[in-house]
Design a protein that fits this description.
The complex is a heterotrimer. By secondary structure, chain B is α+β, with helices and mostly antiparallel strands. Chain B is built from two helices and six strands, in the order βββαβββα. In chain B, a hairpin with a 5-residue loop joins strand 5 and strand 6 (about 75-80). In chain C, helix 23 (about 770-780) crosses helix 24 (about 820-835). Classes of the chains: A alpha+beta, B alpha+beta, C alpha+beta. Chains in contact: A-B, A-C, B-C.
Chain lengths: ~190, ~110, ~1000
């Protein structure tokens, strides 16, 4: 919808890393019994993917995907305008089974970081163990003073999700961390 | 600065990703309980020096509560376990006993 | 004089010139110099004054243990006091000024303190505080305040222009110290495939060994270090960091390292300091040892320097502190200084050694050079005021009155070496006293323990007590192998050294007068006599003696003074040194900058600010913003020339007369869903929630288990098993956490899921008599009185926006709160303004919101509540279900005092004169309390000027207030006045609710 804007409307900045707000991204939270057959079926029918293992996510070969957030929680990523459709598909698929599917697209801001090694930027902000983090392993942690979820698509590309209200703070954090001259050269 | 392994999502979490929630295995006393029971539930904490069972929330993480057995003096961690338990599980008690032979659950 | 030598100087580049100023005077040094070596090269021996007596002070050491040579660096925004010249690398245009003197370094008025030093003994401050009290206030304090403080504090309005940052690293092993031992450990660990971080606080690898000419594995130390670093640099799993100090060891393998990136090369480009926040499986301390001063009379005079430091300056920087040096040492290592000085062409007048004999390799080499060696001897006096002119040498063991006067301009002293055990001790590692080497060494049986109950710090090399080359290498091999890392013992060749003689006071039988001139703590002016006085006055604990005498409390934290001081204390108490024990070692090892601790958290990043989707519009309108939790919300929207008060009044007036718009997006919104959701909602809220019909709204109260009101808000039932809970703006995260706590930890078998969707929605309150007209103009939904009555919600499309419309009111007016997806929030806000222009749609802020809710007598969490107020106090009994067996807080409210009638309860307050009661005002009762203060019987909780009623209105909690309607009571004012105030109903405006219900 033409009236819809992301928090920072795709702003970007380049230091020793390139930081960009991704604009509008569709996101749906599903809370349900992830071991139940009906959940597996509902997820498959909604997005064509299986339920990832703990802290895993789909392989990134398609734009849409699903990430494991907790033993009873998944996060679906899709086009912004498709989020309601995913909610409806999940709701339909889950039927009477106890669940909660909710569109959270607008509650979030999403950033991408590109660098020779993105851990040079991430490592300034999160206490998460980046040395042992596998590609496309989703880690929920904090970035400085705010909660965030992130994963590395590759050593030189990472995605960070935070709450929409702190998008500017997150952008400023990432840009400051990625400033030219602030390379740590540890990784 | 502690590290605790969240038994729910498996992450080794830094203390700054966690929120402390006080003593574990409290029994709630609601309407119908005596004043003494309510006082016990609300206020009476032994505040032990030594083996302690406590509540933690992986607040900057999976958001789940879990429990930890920890020595409050040495900060040694004997184990973490799900919040959905009424008393310390056998494997945790065994781990404590192995390190603190004189200790017993009172 | 101290001067640059024609030879030596392995760390400097003689072809370069670096210009700098000291106290405004231009001086020259070389690249590679420290500020200390450059000052010495310019014969600037006097660098500061001591804290208490303002005695002249020169450079004593060559590293972070330096107690004297602290200066102010930089100016204006970059001014920084108390910087050590020994660890400050020289750079072009460096500006340094000396500190702690007035009016000048050369002539200092405070030095008069030294002349009255017998009136300023140990415990001076303590004793003066005690009595006579008036003396302190009127005599001592003004004088001391004038001259107190170390260095010049930066101006309070200056802002540090530099950047700082943190960096998290997770490693198997962090090794502190890049000397031979640290490099050996890094090589072994690196080869074993461990993830290693090796940090060295100085700008150079190799530590002391290259200075002392050790031979490592058949190579010169210099070459061995070069090769080792080359090999390490090739290892993917090893990271090397110079200018990085492992400052502190904390619990569970956490350690902080302080990297100085920009200090030696100031730049706008890079951060100045970086604080490394390290999680390590193992912390290896290869931190070396620190040389101890000897306590002889006059040992504090400029020109008296540690023997090892003299070698450092000669070998590393080609600088000598004097033309003619006397070495005084109780150990063989001190003789190295004589050899080094001699080799550099510096005259060595003699070596003074209190030991009866000195026949080791090193003394023999010294004798072979025809340098006089005086064994069984002591220095009994140092002559010279601002620098050494000569020393008196006499017999060490007895005072027969005979002495030789030996002219010299520098004294190199060595009292033996103390392992740097700080990192071992920070988290509780214990120490043993090593009689042979007269030092504390780590007790490997009592290490600091980690989360597994296992030791996680390992000391190696000199830090482990291996004070001589081969012994140091052995500790590396032994201790690293014990960690399961195969480590071969690398052969290190050094001269054989005989044992030192512990000498804590020199000469041995020095009388009181001489002891009063033996300095232990150079910066804080603590002398041997002070510690002895403390012992005499009954101070037995080393911790108490430290605080009484201020020994070791200077900025060097006792690095040079503590062992000597406690040895003197032990002697005075006739106890062993281990019985007296050490003071506590606390991080950081040397001071680290506040900037590094703050990291990125400054300026805009000091704290996260939460912004609504409409935030930018508010700022563009020039709204005056106020903090609400981490949110910033518009307090009011002042127009040109308008005061905040006027703006608030205008906003209220416009809203009550026509149409107001409020950005209410910060309101918490939590979904509670599941078959057990009604039951769960019944426990969370005091109200009956299970009876709420889908599509209906109900105002609900949430209490904690104590029964105190903690949050409120409108609950909407979306369908049979789904509720939307509105919370206060600041309370959303807390309430969501509260729900999850109960669901996860108490009622985990209940089928309920929650989601905090606060930020998914922008929420706008459309308020005022014309609110409905505006929505009807936008079109798309039936918002009529019949279709959408008060306290009901509807979903649909409004003017093309996906909307949830709640017919609720916090102002008493006809009001709709409309939620649209946050991404559409700004566009919707713009659309409302455009369509509402014909009704003078006016944005209003939080203050107008507050005034309007107070006019209606609605409570506000945080104003009417403070964590001690129960809903019953606020006249909210109607919202507390009597039918429910249980809800959170019910049992708490049944306690006798909560259930009592005898409480302060909510009422409205109207001043008789129409004025506005002061915030925080108390309702005065008869009589006084035990402290002579007026008794009170209530307090104001909210107070405003009501433009609607054109008078002050307040809400407050007054003792049995609701029973006292119409009574006139008195409230106090800050200046002691009293304001006559009538107790009235808290609903000041439209008590029948006719306005909101149209």
């Amino acid at each position: 919808m033409s009236n819809a804007f992301s928090a920072l409307q795709g702003v970007s900045d380049t230091g020793f890393a390139h930081v960009k707000e991704m604009g509008l991204v569709g996101m749906v939270t599903l809370k349900a019994d992830l071991d139940a057959a009906i959940t597996k079926k509902a997820v498959k029918s909604a997005i064509g993917e299986g339920i990832p293992a703990a802290r895993g996510m789909s392989d990134g070969s398609k734009p849409d995907g699903v990430a494991w957030m907790a033993p009873d929680e998944l996060l679906f990523l899709c086009k912004h305008e498709e989020a309601e459709g995913v909610v409806n598909a999940l709701t339909k698929g889950m039927g009477d089974a106890h669940h909660l599917a909710v569109n959270v697209s607008d509650a979030r801001a999403v950033f991408t970081i590109e660098a020779r090694d993105v851990r040079e930027v991430l490592g300034k902000l999160t206490p998460a163990n980046l040395a042992d983090l596998k590609p496309r392993e989703i880690r929920r942690s904090r970035f400085a003073q705010v909660p965030a979820a992130f994963w590395m698509n590759s050593p030189n590309h990472a995605t960070v999700i935070c709450f929409r209200s702190v998008a500017q703070y997150m952008f400023d954090l990432l840009v400051t961390a990625a400033k030219e001259g602030a390379e740590v050269r540890y990784y | 600065m502690l590290t605790l392994t969240c038994p729910v999502c498996g992450v080794d979490a830094c203390e700054t990703e966690l929120a402390a929630g006080g003593e574990a295995h409290l029994k709630r006393y609601g309407p119908g309980s005596s004043d003494d029971q309510f006082e016990e539930y609300m206020f009476m904490r032994p505040n032990v020096k030594g083996v302690h069972f406590e509540r933690w929330r992986h607040a900057m993480g999976c958001g789940k509560w879990f429990l930890a057995a920890r020595d409050t003096a040495t900060l040694e961690v004997f184990g973490t376990y799900p919040a959905q338990t009424l008393e310390p599980p056998a494997d945790i008690l065994k781990a404590i006993k192995a390190k603190r032979p004189d200790w017993s659950l009172t | 004089m101290s001067t640059r030598l024609p030879t030596q100087g392995r760390l400097i580049d003689r072809s370069s010139t670096v210009k700098f100023t000291f106290n405004g005077k231009w001086m020259r040094g070389h690249a590679g110099d420290t500020l200390a070596s450059a000052l010495l090269a310019n014969d600037q021996m006097l660098v500061g004054r001591s804290f208490k007596y303002h005695r002249p002070r020169g450079i004593v050491a060559s590293g972070g243990e330096e107690p004297n040579a602290l200066v102010n660096l930089g100016r204006h925004k970059r001014h920084e006091p108390n910087q050590r010249v020994t660890t400050t690398e020289l750079f072009d245009k460096l500006e340094a000024t000396s500190q702690n003197h007035w009016p000048s370094l050369e002539f200092d008025v405070g030095a008069v303190n030294a002349m009255v030093s017998r009136f300023l003994p140990a415990g001076f401050y303590y004793k003066t505080f005690m009595f006579p009290r008036a003396f302190w206030k009127h005599v001592f304090e003004p004088v001391i305040r004038q001259s107190a403080g170390l260095g010049a504090a930066p101006h309070p309005e200056t802002r540090d222009p530099d950047r700082y940052e943190h960096f998290y690293a997770h490693v198997d092993m962090v090794i502190a110290g890049g000397g031979i031992a640290g490099l050996m450990a890094a090589l072994a660990s690196g080869r074993a495939g461990k993830r290693v971080l090796l940090v060295e606080q100085s700008a150079h690898w190799g530590g002391r060994a290259p200075v002392d000419g050790d031979v490592v594995d058949g190579q010169s130390a210099e070459d061995w270090v070069k090769n080792a670093v080359e090999e390490l640099e090739k290892m993917e799993n090893v990271s090397l960091r110079l200018r990085t100090q492992l400052s502190g060891v904390y619990d569970h393998g956490y350690a902080l390292a302080y990297e100085r990136i920009g200090d030696h090369a100031p730049s706008e480009e890079s951060p100045r300091h970086r604080l490394w926040r390290i999680r390590a499986g193992r912390i290896v301390a290869a931190t070396g040892a620190i040389e101890r001063p000897l306590s002889f009379p006059g040992n504090d005079k400029p020109g008296v320097m540690l023997a090892g430091a003299v070698r450092d300056y000669i070998v590393n920087y080609g600088v000598t502190p004097g033309d003619r040096i006397v070495v005084v040492t109780n150990n063989d290592d001190g003789y190295r200084t004589a050899l080094t000085a001699h080799a550099a062409g510096v005259a060595v007048a003699c070596v003074v050694d209190p030991r009866p004999t000195a026949d080791g390799d090193l003394p023999q080499q010294v004798r072979a050079l025809n340098i006089p060696v005086r064994t069984g001897a002591a220095i009994s006096k140092v002559k010279g005021l601002k620098r050494v002119v000569s020393v008196r040498v006499q017999a060490f063991a007895e005072d027969d009155g005979g002495y030789d006067e030996i002219p010299c301009d520098a004294v190199a002293m060595s009292g033996g070496w103390s392992p740097v055990v700080h990192l071992w001790s920070h988290c509780g590692g214990k120490l043993n006293w090593d009689e042979g080497q007269a030092c504390f060494v780590p007790d490997t049986d009592r290490p600091p323990t980690n989360q597994n109950g296992e030791g996680y710090v390992t000391c190696i090399g000199a830090a482990a007590g291996g004070l001589q080359g081969a012994a140091a290498a052995k500790t590396v091999a032994d201790r690293m192998s014990a960690l399961g890392i195969a480590t071969e013992e690398v052969p290190v060749q050094t001269a054989n050294e005989a044992l030192l003689a512990p000498v804590w006071v020199m000469p041995a039988y020095a009388g009181v007068k001489k002891r009063a001139k033996m300095w232990l703590d150079f910066q804080n002016d603590v002398k041997v006599s002070d510690v002895m006085l403390a012992a005499q006055e009954g101070y037995e604990s080393v911790e108490h003696t430290k605080r009484y005498t201020t020994l070791g409390m200077a900025t060097d934290q006792g690095k040079l003074s503590n062992i000597n001081g406690l040895a003197v204390l032990a002697e005075a108490l006739d106890k062993g040194i281990p019985q007296v024990g050490t003071t506590t070692f606390r991080p950081p090892y040397t001071p680290i900058s506040m900037g590094a601790i703050a990291g990125e958290a400054k300026g805009a990043l000091f704290q996260p600010l939460r912004r609504t989707p409409i935030h930018d519009w508010h700022e563009a309108q020039g709204a005056y913003m106020e903090p609400v939790g981490h949110w910033r919300r518009p307090y009011c929207f002042p127009r040109d020339g308008e005061s905040h008060e006027d703006a608030v009044n205008r906003e209220i007036d416009a809203t009550r007369r026509s149409l107001g718009l409020l950005d209410a997006s910060t309101l918490g919104k939590i979904i509670v869903k599941g078959p057990d959701a009604p039951k769960f909602m019944g426990m969370l809220y005091t109200n009956m929630m299970s009876s709420l019909k889908p599509g209906k709204c109900r105002y609900g109260l949430m209490c904690n288990e104590n029964g105190f009101l903690m949050d409120d808000g409108v609950v909407v039932r979306l369908d049979e098993e789904t509720f939307l809970c509105h919370t206060t703006s600041g309370g959303a995260d807390t309430v969501h956490g509260w729900m999850e706590d109960w669901l996860q930890c108490e009622w985990w078998d209940w089928k309920v899921y929650t989601a905090n969707v606060t930020e998914q929605w922008a929420q706008i309150a459309v308020v005022g008599p014309n609110a409905r007209k505006l929505l009807e103009k936008l079109g798309g939904m039936d918002v009529s009185k019949d279709t959408l009555p008060f306290m009901q919600m509807a979903e649909g499309t409004l003017g093309g926006f996906d909307a949830r419309v709640f017919r609720i009111s916090f102002s008493g007016e006809l009001s709709y709160e409309i939620a649209v997806p946050a991404s559409q929030g700004r566009a919707f806000w713009d659309a409302l303004h455009e369509a509402g222009a014909e009704w003078n749609a006016t944005p209003y802020g939080t203050e107008a919101l507050h005034v309007m809710r107070a006019e209606k007598g609605f409570i506000m969490i945080g104003d009417e509540t403070d964590g001690t107020v129960i809903p019953q106090d606020l006249g909210l009994n109607w919202a507390i279900s009597k039918k429910k067996e249980d809800f959170l807080g019910k049992r708490g409210q049944q306690r006798t005092f909560m259930a009592s009638e005898d409480r302060w309860q909510l009422v409205g307050l109207e001043t008789v004169d129409g004025s506005v009661l002061p915030d925080g005002s108390y309702c005065v009762a008869d009589g006084k309390n035990a402290n002579g203060q007026a008794n009170v019987q209530g307090r104001v909780t909210s107070t405003y000027y009501s433009p609607t009623l054109a008078r002050g209105i307040s809400m407050g909690l007054v003792h049995k207030g609701p029973d006292r309607m119409g009574e006139v009571v008195e409230f106090n004012t800050v200046d002691g006045g009293r304001v006559k105030t009538k107790i009235v109903s808290p609903v000041f405006y439209d008590p029948e609710g006719e306005k909101q219900n149209v």
